[in-house]
């Protein structure tokens, strides 16, 4: 897919038939037994660098909700993502100051559930017709141990960005497998040592994991309610070996790439310093504004065999109901409105957020070619991190980046680094 100007407004016209109104179900009250149907409904959403488009969509939903509910005032507060841990912990400890509805990152959910912060809305979603169009792998990002604690509000997926002019100049084909990604990157750097063959870093976990997943590996497996590390399995190590080969002088030199995060990896591509990178649909606006926009294209990151797609991390945010709310019915109804098909489409038009609904994404992909590779990636099947509060510890301690960086620096073999990472994972799971 060669990049073109977005066609989101046109896409929306073809999707009108997908939007149907569904009467909200009545829900049981909060644990206190209180379930007020009037008063102030408090909502927390994340602030954005460019927040105005998001606010316009949310304001429209608020106006619609208030018009349909006499005596209800919806108050929306935008909170910084960086301070979310402290804000949510405070809300869980003091329900009186907590919101009724909140946006949260899907990797944070398990920890919030361990703090009893969000309400079980499984029964509410079971009778909600639009939710039938959310696939199981996407729905699982708002689910812990079979219980639904929210609705996926939008998704983020990563794919392979590449320079059409560079590949054409060297008469190179677009890579069709992960092995070919590395081979193509090596050929580019051999021709031009000043260019990175592919810009992807040792601290870019969500670029590394598709290599592991595509080879049949995983971070960990759940056994009897407890996670056990599998990052050191033979399958995982094959993926790590291939990803580790990228962090080499003939592809992406360790001194440049070992510490690179996802943002830095993509920025190198946008600056014209790399022939390829692994970027997300959330990077498209920055790509449009870059100097390489006219010479860039996107395809799904391929798997281990031609015609396959490497499993991508199912990133995104959800909307949930706080456990301590005294307006549970209203809170669930507002979640269904803002996370319903109509407003997910409006958020796509405003922010480029990929909708969680399979049918909506497919219609968008048919009418907006620049989003098609990301939709194809999600439809091929996504993966997720271990659903446990221990993931916050794993993330904070940098277990997976440290593993990759030790290999890149030559301080450990893949086998050694994977075994060390597995021990650190199991220790965190035990503490979690």
TrEMBL record:
InterPro entries according to UniProt: SBP
Residues of the signal peptide: 1-23
SUPFAM superfamilies: Periplasmic binding protein-like II (SSF53850)
Keywords: Signal, Transport
Keyword match Protease: no
Annotated family: Belongs to the bacterial solute-binding protein 1 family.
Protein name: Extracellular solute-binding protein
């Amino acid at each position: 897919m060669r990049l073109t100007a977005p066609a989101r407004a046109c896409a929306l016209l073809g999707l009108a038939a997908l939007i149907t109104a569904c009467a909200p179900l009545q829900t049981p009250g909060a644990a206190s037994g209180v379930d007020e149907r009037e008063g102030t409904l408090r909502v927390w959403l994340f602030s954005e660098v460019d927040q105005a488009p998001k606010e316009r969509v949310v304001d429209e939903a608020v106006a619609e909700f208030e018009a349909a509910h006499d005596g209800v005032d919806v108050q929306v507060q935008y909170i910084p993502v960086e301070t979310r841990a402290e804000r949510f912990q405070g809300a869980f400890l003091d329900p009186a100051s907590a919101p009724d509805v909140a946006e949260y990152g899907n990797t944070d959910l398990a920890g919030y559930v361990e703090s009893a912060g969000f309400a079980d809305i499984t029964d509410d979603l079971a009778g909600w017709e639009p939710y039938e169009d959310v696939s199981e792998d996407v729905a699982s990002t708002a689910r812990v141990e079979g219980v639904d604690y929210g609705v996926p509000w939008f998704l983020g997926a990563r794919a392979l960005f590449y320079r059409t002019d560079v590949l054409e100049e060297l008469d190179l084909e677009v890579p069709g497998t992960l092995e070919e990604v590395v081979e193509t990157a090596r050929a580019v750097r051999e021709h031009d040592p000043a260019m990175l063959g592919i810009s992807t870093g040792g601290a870019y976990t969500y670029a590394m994991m598709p290599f592991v997943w595509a080879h049949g590996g995983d971070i960990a497996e759940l056994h009897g309610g407890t996670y056990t590390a599998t990052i050191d399995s033979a399958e995982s190590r094959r993926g790590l070996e291939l990803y580790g080969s990228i962090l080499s002088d003939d592809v992406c030199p360790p001194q440049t790439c070992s510490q690179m995060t996802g943002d830095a990896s993509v920025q190198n591509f946008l600056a014209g310093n790399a022939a390829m990178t692994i970027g997300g649909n959330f990077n498209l606006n920055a790509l449009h504004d870059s100097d390489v926009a006219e010479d860039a294209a996107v395809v799904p990151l391929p798997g281990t065999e031609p015609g396959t797609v490497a499993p991508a991390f199912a990133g995104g945010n959800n909307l949930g109901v706080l456990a301590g709310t005294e307006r549970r019915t209203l809170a669930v109804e507002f979640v269904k409105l803002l996370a319903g098909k109509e407003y997910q489409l409006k958020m796509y038009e405003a922010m480029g957020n990929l909708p969680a609904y399979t049918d909506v994404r497919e219609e968008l992909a048919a009418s907006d070619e620049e989003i098609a590779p990301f939709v194809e990636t999600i439809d091929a099947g996504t993966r997720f991190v271990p659903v446990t509060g221990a993931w916050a510890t794993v993330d904070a301690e940098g277990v997976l980046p440290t593993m990759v960086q030790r290999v890149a620096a030559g301080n450990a073999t893949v086998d050694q680094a994977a075994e060390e990472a597995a021990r650190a994972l199991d220790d965190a799971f035990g503490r979690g």
